[in-house]
Amino acid sequence: MLTQFFGRLRDGHYHRLSTPLAIFLISRSLIWVIGFVARVAFSSRLGDGPWHTHPGQIYLDIWDRWDSAFYRGIARQGYVYLSPDEPGNVVFFPLYPLLTRLAHLLAADWTIAGLLVSHVCLLLALVVLYNLTLLEFGDRATAQRAIFYIAIFPTAFFFSAVYSESTFLLFAVACVYFTRRREWLPAGVCGLLAATARVTGVLLYGYMLLEWASAGGLTWRNFYRRQGWAGVVTRPGLLALLATQLVPLGLLLYMLFLQWRFGNALAFLQGQADWGRGSLYSPLAILWRDFRPLLLDPFVPGWAVNDIWRTGLDALLGVGALLLVPFVWRRLNAAYALYTAVAVLLPLATGTTMSLSRYVLVLFPLFMLLAWWGRHPLVDRALTLAFALLLGILLTVFVNWGFVA
After folding, report:
1. How many CA within 13 A on the CB side of residue 161?
2. Is 395 among the domain residues?
3. ∠ CA(269), CA(273), CA(279), 5° rounding?
4. CB 170 within 8 A of CB 159
5. Is the dihedral of CA 277, 279, 283, 287 positive or negative?
6. Which of 46, 104, 147, 187 is the S-S candidate for 400 at Cβ 3.0 to 4.6 Å?
7. Could you tell me if residue 249 is inside a domain?
């Protein structure tokens, strides 16, 4: 795999690495500068937060907010689980804290270790996403727009914080990339790692199964016919199916750990109530519930304006993502579309749109589609302007301890 990749670089395909590197450096530099300036300029007006890991070093301190404390705590001291009523930090999946702990061998400071993991994973994710888009569309300009759009998405600053978004994105994109290249074992391994970074990583299992069936010529039309299975019931086909089973193994391994450590394999589910998530709800009803105040009266008394706009933005992005699913199906394929749809509907089914903007952030098929549409200059300029403007606003809120997602 790596031999083939570097072989392409020797053949003059340096853009496969240089383009993602350039977008990574430019976007991260701008986000760091804007975050620093926003903190210095607005800290006295927007108030202070509950803690500061680096009070004298604003350029580091601004990237350690909210959930960062849980990730640092897990990396440093491990998981805590008292009871279903006090679930501790088990809702946060282990891969990112584990990588942060390994990075701590290089960086003595825990925040710096977390930032190191986030940025390395982001750079690699952009490289893989660029090559995946190139594989699907065969066009360098489209591939460049895909990674550019995701790098300036309104919540893309989470890629630069002590959060798990970069880690999940890397292994989710890598799983799909290797699957599309029919390299099933590395795809399964990456899917396993994605499932240990975030619960929605297990959805890659469905994606791989659909691609496995497609690769063997198995469709809904010939599903009940012997000839439909002829291409999958072969030695390569069965080995590919076996590799696919690695994806749910990632979630299973975390559940086994929770059972061994705390005697409760479902502790991560039971703890969701502390984050405003509960039993199954209608995803569309939840979207309408949180989007309606933004439409009817965004300044209604009794509900903080920032709450209305935050939940409204989450709901708006959820609606937008679902509306794009049919176009993902048409321009890419059914596996991409179904993965995207379920990845939006699953968090909504827990009864809240909270943090949905972070779930949408890592739905790379959407950015591949937008990149294809962005071949029209007007669309490209509109997306760039809207994303950059919202990114600046939300980043200012985030670094000054406003809750964004």
Report:
1. 27
2. yes
3. 70
4. no
5. negative
6. 46
7. yes
The count of structural domains within the chain is 1
83 DSSP β-pair partners: 86
Give the containing element (helix H, strand E) for 115.
helix 110-137
Nearest to 218 by CA among 226, 340, 242: 226
Tell me, letter by letter, the H, E, C secondary structure of 165-178.
HHHHHHHHHHHHHH
Question: Please, which pLDDT band fits residue 355 given cuts at 50, 70 and 90?
Answer: confident
Dihedral (CA of 364, 366, 370, 372) sign: positive
Q: Which of 360, 372, 283, 291 is nearest to 332 (CA)?
A: 372
Which two tokens mark 176? 């799909």
CA distance 382 to 222: 44
Q: What is the pLDDT of residues 176-203, one digit of tens each?
A: 999 999 999 999 999 999 999 999 999 9
In a domain, 245, yes or no: yes
Indicate the SS3 state at residue 86: strand
pLDDT, mean of residues 21-27? 97
| pLDDT tier for residue 359 given thresholds of 50, 70 and 90 | very high
Strand partners, 86: 83
pLDDT digits (tens, 9 = 90+) for 63-98: 998 899 999 999 999 998 876 666 678 999 999 999
Domain containing 150: what range? 15-277+364-399
- Burial of 226: CB neighbours in 10 Å, binned 0-12, 13-18, 19+: exposed
Q: Tell me the three state secondary structure of residue 360.
A: helix
Taking each helix axis as running N to C, give the angle between helix 334-348 and helix 283-296, from 0 to 180 degrees, rounded to the nearest 10: 70
Q: How far is CA 288 from CA 283, 284, 315, 345, 352, in A?
A: 9, 6, 8, 13, 11
Q: Kindly give the residue spans of alpha helices, DSSP state H, lying in 138-225.
A: 140-151, 165-180, 184-195, 204-215
> What residues contact residue 239 under an 8 Å CB cut-off, 6+ apart?
184
Q: Dihedral sign, CA of 232, 234, 238, 244?
A: negative
**Does 394 fall in a domain?**
yes
What's the Cα-to-Cα distance from 302 to each of 118, 291, 293, rounded to whole Å? 38, 17, 12
| Rounded distance between C-alpha atoms, residue 338 and residue 180, angstroms | 16
Pairwise CA distance, residues 125 & 169, whole Å = 6
